[in-house]
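Self-study notes.
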Amino acid sequence: MMDAAMNEEQITHELVTRGWSVFTDPGFISHAGPFFHRAGATGPSFCFPTAAKHENRNGMLQGGALMTFTDRALGATARHLTDTAATVTVTLTLQFVDGVRIGETVEVTPAMVRATKQLVFMNGIFMVGSRVVCVASGIWKKIATPARPGKA
C-alpha cells in the first residue's frame, strides 16, 4: 500500500524502483492515472496506485476510475498478445467485489481467453494484495490504426 499522502511524482518514483513503467498516453489516461505496467511470464501486468483525485463521495475509489483502468489494462493486453496495432472495446463487464481504499494499489495480469480474426476475448481478476476487488471480462475488436485529428 502506498502512503496516501505521497504525491504523483513520489508514487511514480517508488513504483519505477520496483520495476514498473509508467503507461504513457497523452489522452484521457494522463488525467485518469497514472497507470503502470511491466512484462511478465504470461504477459503484461498493470497496477493503479489510487490517490485522492480518484476518491468518490464515500471516501473510496470511484468505480469509474477502476473501470477506466480495467479497460486500459485488458485492451492493452489484447493488443500486445495478438500483435495488433489498435483495438476498440466492444463490451466490458465488471463485478465490483470489494471496495478499494485511497492509497491502495490495484494490480492485474490480464488473460486472453480467445482471439479470432477480428475479436479478442479478455478477462482479469483485479487484486489489492491478496484481496479480490474486481472481476472483469470484455471483448475487443481489432481495427486498422485510427488516424488522430490533425494527422494524415
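Second protein, same conventions, sequence then structure:
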Amino acid sequence: MLDINRLKVDVAGKRVLDDINLKIDKGEVFVLFGPNGSGKSTLLKIIMGFYGYELVEGSIVFKGNDIVGRKVEERVKNGIGIMYQHPPSVTGVKLRQIAQRLTDDENKINEWAEKLELTEHLDRDINVGFSGGEMKRSELFQLMLQEPDLLLLDEPESGVDLENISIMGKVLNGYLSHPDKSALIITHTGYILDYVKGKKGSVLMDNRLWCVGEPKEMFDSIRRSGYEKCKGCVCPQKG
C-alpha cells in the first residue's frame, strides 16, 4: 500500500525527518508513537503532499506509484485521506453540502451520519459551534465518505472524551476490517488501540524511526519507561 524509502524532509531549512523507511502493507494498520515535536504530523503531511515541507531526498510509493511531486488532490483521488489533529471550522458551508460534494449517494451520507451520531449536525456550518468530539466525528464523517484506501489519522482521540472515542473507534474498526484498507495512526493516549488493532508500531524521535513492535506492547513500555528505552528496542518484534 505504502512504501517510504530514505525520506529526508526539511522545514524552514531545518531537518525534521532523516532517513525514514516505512512500509505499510494492504490491510495493515501501522501505529506511530513519539514525543511532541518529533515530526509525526510532518510525516503525514509530506505523504499527503502539503506545501511548506521540502522533500530533500527519498521516495514515497503508494500502490506501486511514486507520488513525489503529485498534487494533494491527485493523492486524494488515488485513495489517500487524512484526519487532522485540529479540524478547521468553515462558516457558510453546511456539513451536508460538503458531504454532497464527496458523494451523490444520499443513503451513504445518512448512514455514516447516523453511525457517527451527526444526523442533527448535517445542516449546521462545518464545525462551527461543535464540541471537540463533534468536530472529530465530523472530520471522520467526511473521511469515510471519501472511502480512502489509506487513512492518515493524526491523533484521532486528541481532546476527545471516552464516549466520542468509542463512537469513532467502532466506526474505524469496522472500516479497517476490510482487507484492502490500511492506516497510519499517530496516538499519544493509546485509547484508539482499544478499538483498532495495529499490526506494527514504531517510535519517531530525534528525526528518525526507532524500533518496530506490537503497538500495545510498545505503548505499555513507553508508559513504564519513557521513549528513550525505545532506542534499545525491547518490545516483541513484528517484522
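Instructor comment on the second fold: The first strand starts at residue 2 and ends at 11.
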